[in-house]
User: What shape does this take?
Amino acid sequence: MTSAPTAAPDLTRQPPAPRGHRGSSALRGRPAVSLIAEGLTAVAAALLMTAAASTVELNPMMRIGQVSGLAALQLRLLLLLGVVLVACAWLMRRRPLAPVRYAAAAISGLASGVTAAGVSLALRDTTWPLGGQNGDAGNLQAWANALMEGKSLDGGYPPVYPHLIAWTAEYLTDGQTAHALKLVGLLFVALLGPAAYLAWRLLLPPLWALGIGVTAALPMMQPYKPYTNIVLVAFVPVLAKLIQTVQRSPRLPRRKAAVTGGVLGLLLGLMFIVYSGWFVWSAAGAVVLTAVVLVRLRRTAGTGGLVAAGYTLGAATAGFLAVAGLSLYRLLSSAGATVDRYCYFDTYTEPTYFAMWRDDLPGTDALSTWPLPGELGGVGVFTILLLVGLGIALTLGIDRASVLVPAACAASALLMRYWYASHMESNQAVMLYPRTSAQLLHCLLLLTGLACFLVARRNADAGAALGVVRLSRRPGPRAVAVGSLCALGLLFGMAGSATADKFMPKQDGGTGALAWTAQVTADYNGHCSAYAPGGTCKQPGDPATVGVPEPDLGVLTCSHLGPFPNARRP
Assistant: This one.
């Protein structure tokens, strides 16, 4: 029998782990400083790509200028991708695996940096953020101004983002909260890719963390309020790492289990005080999943297993409450008094559709044709593929925290979505339920990617167990790395350009109107953007009136859009 050729190192695999927990931690077998170095690489790449926008010449208020500017960003992105790929291939001659980590980290930064660069072009020569002083942008500026005056925030809203705007305004933008919001917003947009990649590196090897984590984050690019979705893309894998640690706790030293749980609890607490919405939608699923895991531990590891899990969960709870305890108390205290009556665009959409998050601006789409008709009983092929991925992931990974947590978060969000939507007419309250579309889409994308990961691992294991004779040589590690990184880099660049293009200035009543408003409004010092039509701008409103809530009339605020009836309750 002809023997198989020597196998090349598999860049998608992890070192061996205990049964049921393979491929678990990015830190096993290597110092934590390695993950920190990957994080620094990702952030540096994101900031470099964002800064590249300053070298592009364009008129952002003309469509030809917008297209030219986006193309110029893609040229710069291709140059940086080329540098990363060449460096990775050259360095892998001596160390086959280490360069892949840093190359993947760099591409995760470029992935979101290109979107931040595009938004920067849209806001060229204006200090206003997207939306100017209207809507949520105006509210954030009002809250930051209040903080600078020594006032307190609404207890039900996470405090980090308004405080960060106030700090930036005080120390970097000469007290201008609008300019501070623009800078902080661009930073959060740029950091979405690194956040997704680094969080999934706690569970997956580099190429899989890039391919699954960052790809699933692409639809979550939301430059208008970037602090919300950056929490979502990091929350799911960090929670999965915590559940995984609970599963493994009987085999871990109690001190290590407690320290790991405490660190993960701190991370979850920090995310909670940045934006807590995803915690609310996921709470039911997380509680049920934790209970199921503990029951299984009691059955398989006895009372000692429960005690070990208690060390992990207790430390995680302590870490979470140390950071977010006060915010959690305020959120729970104000829950009954906070009623959301704002009608999103998606409020009118058939409630089972979640395949595309359409924002909450009306835009130019006709409501009567949204969503587009699906091919199978009204369900589109994309959604069907997501459900196939869900089925495969649950079949092959039913004992894996990386699969169970996204599934539990999706199930929890789906149940709460239908609950609030079904009571919307009777209660005259929306309660933010259309935002579950983002969580459902993100979690199912993750599960589809994990299904691919599990199938690939299963096939590799089956081939090794059967001693399959390969008639051709397997691709070498450099070929795997360069091919994967090249394809993913191009995908991320295209998605980033498409996302940035939606926010280019235009009078469309949708996302383009956010940058248009910023370009045609003078700042408080009288500066008018050089690209404002006719060289004239409208004057900003009185800052004292921005963010003042309108009186609650007790009914939905739906305006008459499209062909739908709009009769209010008598």
